[in-house]
Specification:
Shape: globular
Helix content: 10-25%
Order of helices and strands: HHEEEEEEHEEEEEE
Radius of gyration: 20 Å
Strand order of the largest sheet: 7-8-9-10-11-1-2-3-4-5-6-12
CATH class: Mainly Beta
Number of strands: 12
Number of helices: 3
Length: about 200
């Protein structure tokens, strides 16, 4: 009788999604996003070494724009085919192939399928709204990434690199503003030098 009661209780309990599934669901719910941001970078001792601010935009499946307005203007734009990095002060543009590995461009984690999320990261939930992602690839640009949500929407994230440097980003005025592919189109300025990086080691 006791065993029967225990089995009935076990069968009546909800089947909770694991940490990876919970994160994937939150990422799936974010189809597009615009926000302002502030960014701080700290060295391995916790000393502030850099601060910047700007705005960002994201649209699935693979469009991203990251514009630093202060202190020096710089644009990082992914259009699905290429990744463009435009240093406005230096009048220099670097074009790279669009990365397939999201560990090389962290914001692209929003495009991960559940299967690839499991393969590429170990995901742990450290509190009610934050998830820590540890890349499986040891050549990743970061040792861990933490994503924090508020009512299902990304509000902050941080990156810890292999040297102990920490980058913290806070998002403000986040909105699901309608976006089109034209919002992520890059036009090469006439005065800018174009450098093509095909990713091959020479």
């Amino acid at each position: 009788m006791l065993l029967r009661s225990f089995l009935l209780l076990a069968l009546s309990l909800p089947v909770w999604a694991d940490d990876t599934e919970q994160l994937h669901q939150l990422l799936q719910d974010t189809e597009q996003l615009t926000a302002s941001f502030s960014q701080q970078q700290f060295d391995e001792t916790g000393q502030l070494i850099d601060a910047s601010s700007g705005d960002m935009a994201l649209k699935k499946p693979n469009l991203v724009r990251w514009f630093i307005a202060d202190p020096f203007e710089q644009l990082l734009l992914g259009d699905g085919d290429w990744l463009w990095q435009y240093d406005i002060e230096l009048e220099q543009v670097v074009r790279r192939p669009y990365p397939e590995d999201t560990s090389q461009t962290p914001l692209l984690v929003f495009t991960e399928s559940l299967e690839s999320l499991r393969i590429n990261y170990r995901v742990t939930r450290n509190d009610e709204q934050c998830f820590v992602l540890s890349p499986s690839d040891t050549s990743s640009l970061f040792a861990s990434m933490t994503l924090c949500f508020d009512n299902g929407q990304l509000e902050a994230f941080s990156l810890l690199d292999g040297f102990g440097q920490l980058t913290e980003v806070s998002l403000y005025d986040a909105q699901s503003t309608p976006l089109t592919t034209e919002d992520f189109a890059f036009e090469l300025p006439s005065e800018a030098e174009l450098i093509i990086d095909d990713g091959n080691v020479r």
